[in-house]
Specification:
The complex is a heterodimer of chains A (338) and B (285). Chain A is mostly helical and 338 residues long. Chain A has helices at residues 12-17, 27-45, 48-57, 64-83, 90-110, 201-210, 215-220, 223-242, 284-311, 313-320, 325-337; strands spanning 115-118, 128-130, 136-138, 170-173, 258-260, 263-265, 274-277, 280-283. In chain A, helix 4 packs antiparallel against helix 6 (201-210) and helix 9 packs across helix 10 (313-320). The longest helix of chain A is centred in the C-terminal third of the chain and has 28 residues, at 284-311. The model of chain A has no long low-confidence stretch (mean pLDDT 94). With 285 residues, chain B is mostly helical. Among the domains of chain B are: 61-107 and 186-206 and 239-278, no CATH class; 110-174, no CATH class. Chain B starts with 6 loop residues before the first strand and ends in a 9-residue tail after the last helix. Classes of the chains: A mainly alpha (338), B mainly alpha (285). The A-B interface holds A 42-50, 52, 79, 82-83, 85, 187-188, 239-245, 249-257, 266-277, 281, 283, 285 and B 11-17, 33, 35-38, 41-42, 44, 50, 52-53, 55-56, 58-60, 65-68, 72, 74-78, 106-110, 182, 185-187, 248.
Chain lengths: 338, 285
Amino acid sequence: MTPDLTCYGADIPALADLVGDFDLRSPIDTRAWYTREWEALGELLGFAQPLAAELAQRRNASDWVRATGEAGMAAFAAWHRRESRAGMSDRQAITQASVIRHMVNSGRDRGELWRVTVDPTLLDTGACYQDDSGAWSRAFYPDTAPGYFGDGWSGPPPQAESRCGWTTPLVLHLGTFPWVYSSRFDASGPALRWSSASAAPAVEAFRIMSSALQPEANLRQDARQVAAIYRHFRTHTAPLVSRLPVYRPGQAQAGRLYRHAGFLRMQGSLHVAGLDGSRGNLPATAYNHIIRRFAVFFAVRRATVRALTTWAPEMSRMVATSTDPCLRAQVEGVARAG
Amino acid sequence: MSRLWVTVGTVLGVAGVGGAALLYSRRASAASPPLPGPGPPPAQPANLPPLELAPLPKAGDVKGDLVANWGSTPADLRPLFMYMEEVSRIPGSARVFATIAYGESRFITTAQNGNASGEQDERDSSRAAYKNNKDRNPPLKYGEQAAEFGSGGFFGLLAPYFLWTGVPEVGKKAPLLNAPPEIVFQPRAAAFGACVYMQRLLANYRVDDVPDIKVGWASPSLLGEKNYGGASYQSIRKHYLEKVVAVGIDLADASTIPPKLSAAAWPGVPAVFAALVGSLPKELS
């Protein structure tokens, strides 16, 4: 039985279909799907070569979900170390790493890792760091203006005065890493610059993003949060995408963006193309990555729920206590169908 | 590639408000290349079917490293530049192609120099290239259009010379003689032209180091005895090295770029064309 994702919205099943359905109980199915999705991630971000090497080392692994996850983390970390152009000071990166750890711990408790929020003044670091001149600066961009992931958020205001000027909560969209800000986009993803000589918060953030591919971590994430952010993203991008021509093989003009199977396509570099909407420029690379992250989340969710009772019955107990009525209903439906 | 300072008209189609092409100067800061603005893609001749060559190569299509010393070269173009290096057998050329593409087009495949009102001299260059060379080269089916085109594509190739690519080696069998100049917007076709051009520079001119390649890209005559080391030569090197810094590629990194490139293992125009472009539709071949 295919679990009904429409509880999260009528458009969610079609979203999941963008990356195809698969059966976690089938090793062949699982291997093909996870290989393809990790390769797509590696191609878009640029770590496809180290990923291929890591996957080759694990080609005989029996648990391909875990093997691809480990290979992906190792490949991304190695690539990021080599690729990184010392994006920031040690002080900023160390502060970021500390803040992310805190936000992830509290977000995990709530089942909300896709978008994490915190009052920065309640953190030990205050989400502030000292620059070389001794002045205090914010460790992250204050992302509360209206953007592609939300209409902006001004409150609740910090409970204490911030020494580096925080007047709003700190918000990070880790589910779409490295495009973690709703109102600040560039072609390669701002969070890829989260690194210094001695800290790599980008790697920790990547771990959270890619955890959506792991069935158990996926189940722990409240899908209602993901669906709400997706709906906002779609509201602001669908009118822009609808104006693009549909790609027809052999008919495309170089340098023109096309719609193709739910993604953007161009004969040329997607890094220098984009959509220009009321919420600002959205690079084509960012669009494709973000749509794929949403689609992957719901595809893994669907496959996990379908397989739950026979493939991982221990996860059923976790689901039984979920606050998400959609998830509970899906699992009950699958169990009834046997 | 025929002059130092030209403007680039970016004509990527995007779904935004408005419809004007965004024009920006190559003199603009290269630190943060702007996103292309809305506008129609360049038109093809009306009597031709749409031309779409194979998509860009992917990481799995190349053996060479795609991580070290690429600066801000887009991830989806690195395999193309590496594929050019592997196909042309010019070791170390991948990152040099990336620096040239950054300088000539900011990695925009439809960059064209000559399509704006202020680019008269670029059109003059392509007209002169056509007029002065048409009698000693095989005829171009779209010669008049090439003469009016200026230069374009990733590598800023001057249209008539681009369409004559391969003539010195294979004569009338050169593969682009029947193609319109707009084919330079196809990444793989531009890559073919750039590989052949790089090989000709390395094989026939004095090229002491990588910046000399860029001097030859502007005009091979600057590598001749009379002009080598002159004011234009020095100026081109200076501006090229500024762009190299902007894109973040270290020309002194001998592990990825040898101090002097060599085309000694060049496999020939037909092999390079077959690997990069494959075959053209019968109307163009």
